[in-house]
UniProtKB/TrEMBL annotation:
<dbReference type="GO" id="GO:0005886">
    <property type="term" value="C:plasma membrane"/>
</dbReference>
<keyword id="KW-0418">Kinase</keyword>
<dbReference type="GO" id="GO:0000155">
    <property type="term" value="F:phosphorelay sensor kinase activity"/>
</dbReference>
<protein>
    <recommendedName>
        <fullName>histidine kinase</fullName>
        <ecNumber>2.7.13.3</ecNumber>
    </recommendedName>
</protein>
<keyword id="KW-0067">ATP-binding</keyword>
<keyword id="KW-0902">Two-component regulatory system</keyword>
<keyword id="KW-0808">Transferase</keyword>
<feature type="domain" description="Histidine kinase">
    <location>
        <begin position="20"/>
        <end position="228"/>
    </location>
</feature>
<keyword id="KW-0597">Phosphoprotein</keyword>
<dbReference type="GO" id="GO:0005524">
    <property type="term" value="F:ATP binding"/>
</dbReference>
<keyword id="KW-0547">Nucleotide-binding</keyword>
Amino acid sequence: REIHLQNIERLAVVGELAAGIAHEIRNPLTSIKGFTKIVKESVDSENLKSYLDITLREIDRINTIVSEFMFISKPQEFMNLQLTNLNRVLSNCIAFMEPQANLKSIRITSYFHSEIQTKCDENQLKQVLINILQNAIEATHDSDQDIEVILKETENNKVLIQISDSGVGITEERTKKLFQPFYSTKEKGTGLGLIICKRIIELHQGTIEIKSKSNEGTVVKILLPIDIPCQVDL
Ligand code: ADP
Ligand code: MG
C-alpha cells in the first residue's frame, strides 16, 4: 500500500515534467510536418514522394503518442466530474486505510451528518483523502488515540470534510512549509502528498486548510462547493 501511494506521488511529478516535454515536442513537430508537405509537393521523384509519405505518417504517429501521453501523465487537466456520494467515497477510503490503522491500534471514527452528493472526480478525491488519512496515521503513535472524520454540509452550499488526529502535530514554523514540494519529515516521505492534495482540491474549486499544534494533533479541513460548476476543458 505504501509503495502504491509513493508511486502515485512520483507519477504526478514525472507526469508534470513529461507533460511539459510532450508540449515542447508538439511545436517543432508542427513545423516539421508543414515543411515536409511543402518538400513533398516540390519533388518529382515518386520514390522520394513515397519516403516523404512515410515521414508524414510517422509524424502523425508521434503526434498521437504525445497527445495520449499528455492525457495519461497529466490527469488533473482532464477531470472526470460525476455526481458522487461523498459518504460512500469517505467510507471506502476509511475502509481502505483501516488495516494500516489497525496495525497501530488506531481507530478511525466517522461522523457523517447527512447524505451528501456533489460533483467531483472520485479517483482524485480518493487520492486526497487517502493521503490525508495516511498522514494522520503516520503522525499518531499512541495507540488509544482516534482519528476522527467529519462530513457535513455547511452554510453557503459547502461540504466540509474534516480529518483530525491527536498525533505528533506540527510546529508553527513548519506549518508554513506543508504545501511546499518535497517538504517531508519522514524517512521515506516524498513531501508531495499535500501539494497534490491542494492541487486536486483547488481544481474542484475548494480549499484545504491545516491547523496543528505540536504534540496535540492536527486538523485538516477541506471545503468543497456542493455544486461545482463544470470547468473542464477537453
Ligand atoms: P509526506 O507524507 O510524504 O512526508 P506530505 O506532503 O503528505 O508528504 O506531508 C508533508 C509533511 O507534513 C510530513 O512529512 C509531515 O511532517 C507533515 N504532516 C502532514 N500531515 C501531518 C499530520 N497529520 N500530523 C503531523 N504532521 C503532518
Ligand atoms: Mg503524505
